[in-house]
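Reopening: structure tokens for the 1-deoxymannojirimycin complex, inputs below.
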Amino acid sequence: MGISTVLVFSWFLFLPGDQIVAESRKSYAAGGGVFPFHAGREVSNLQENENKNAASHKILANEESETKSNIEPEAAGIPEHIEAPVESNILPLETLDKVEDAPKTNLQLNRFDEKNNINIQEINLNNNVESVAEVQSERDHTIIEKAVQDPMILPDTKGLTIDDFLKNISTAIVAQKQHFHGATNERQIAVVAAFKHSWDGYRKNAWGLDNLKPISQTGYDWFGLGLTLVDSLDTMYIMGLEDEFLEATNWVNEKLNFDKNRDVNLFEVTIRVLGGLLSAYHLSGDKVFLKKSVELGNRLLPCFLSPSGIPYSDVNLASLSAHSPKWSPDSSTSEVTTIQLEFRDLSRSTNVPIYERLVETVNEKVHALDKNNGLVPIFINANTGTFRNYATISLGARGDSYYEYLLKQWIQTGRKENDYLVLDYLRSIDGVMTQLMRRTPKEQHVFIGELINGKEFKPKMDHLTCYLPGTLILGHKYGMPDSHLILARDLLETCYQTYMKQPTQLAPEISYFAVSENEEHDIYVKPNDAHNLLRPEFIESLYYFYALTGNRTYQDMGWNIFQAFQKHTKVANGYTSIGNVKNVLNTRLRDVMESFWLGETLKYFYLLFSDNRKEIDLEKWVFNSEAHPLPIRKH
Ligand code: DMJ
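Re-run output (same inputs, fresh job):
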């Protein structure tokens, strides 16, 4: 450690906690993404490299993606040799001021114009407020207990049936329809063809079932709710596939039956089915989707009959009893905090407040819990309402969309000043920068690691974390600091490398990163982590980058990946997950087409390749975690 490093380090030690965070964030922004304790590149290099890269990516886009046969992984856990087809790892991002900004909010001005001083206002529930909340919670339990007696009745009304409510729905809350024109260029046409190929396989072999097994030409149920069909509704609508949309709508109307004696997961059903139905309702205006949404929402309500207000993870849709997961006493933190957009939208679409009130309670409870620099453990108990001690902290599985929904709820509700959710978001991204972000020593890839037991740093990043660049640039559009944009760009580049470094040019489920110069490779993949499930997160981030900057380089990057999916995952009856991205000669087809391939991945590809980057206007719509757009409200 040189003398100057020691001096800088000691200076940091004398700063109060919040100020350290502020300083680190400033340094990250000013140094082109350099966390103070890590070496990094200079700002001037950054600009220079960006220019160079515009050229390097162009070349890449025009080249036939080269496939290299690879040696099979030797032993579990041993880093493998990964070849890097791309020389440079810096993204061609336009200068910061080219990112389209909505008018800045006062929140942003108040907060960020003051140097070195974070002034996050806490919302503390005092005793008085708590007792009011207890009374409300008892009332809500009574409403839920009554509601579950007949899920076809609107809760907390004098027996108003969903059908009667829909006959007289007020024009003030009725859906705003949107028309789409269909594909307008070669790439979009190719994506629609991929969608149709997937859909035809599903229609022929697994119609009405949750997922397609394209190789064995059959399907299987997870929840028994036609998951793929419902997840695909808005994608078909957006792609202009009218016949397919109509046929699926008829199935929803006639065959979608929630009265199933089966445990379902609250989060999965909320983001995929409730979100899919609500989105189809708002885009098409067809009330059948709202009718089904209300019934489903009612059947999910028992999850909230927990002592703490933090919902149980599972519910039986017929017996209407809820419980914790079979394998654990705890719910996943991301799951209980990724139902809010949908339940709020259900309330706003029906004028029935209880759905929103219940998820708002979850927000408040989680907000009040102690966190590690804004970061949350990945397990929370529905009985006690507390985080599990020593649980992992991660932006990947079980943690990811907690952070996403902090920002998106603020956007959904008209970006109110001093909304505690956006303040929690700001604090959490500070936490990401100071606790989880690192840069690999040789190739300087920025990545987000995990804290095992809430403490011990592990340089492991799930592909799921690749949603974060998209969320960060979306936040920046609405006034989040430039350091968020820099992190977004650096992380987008790393995620791209997790694809491009593989011989298949498809990313693995999990990547590991070097933390010292002694390690042979900066990015490596363990054999058990080498599968690709057709996940959307990186394409989602590319879409946000394109939609918010207009830079077509992101389209070219997406096109490379789309071609890789075509080459390695397309089979006669659809597309399949693969078990190994590290060997083009042994990809190990897994025979599952996940619903999010149609609900998310292909939708984001389609929108990414659009000539109209505002095909879905991000000032009017907010995507839920399963890529279902819901309307932004004014409050
Ligand atoms: C999707 O169901 C959602 O995006 C969820 O938030 C995370 N995982 C899958 C896709 O990878």
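Residues 450 and 456 are 8 Å apart (CA to CA). The longest helix spans residues 127-147. Marking as resolved unless the reporter disagrees.
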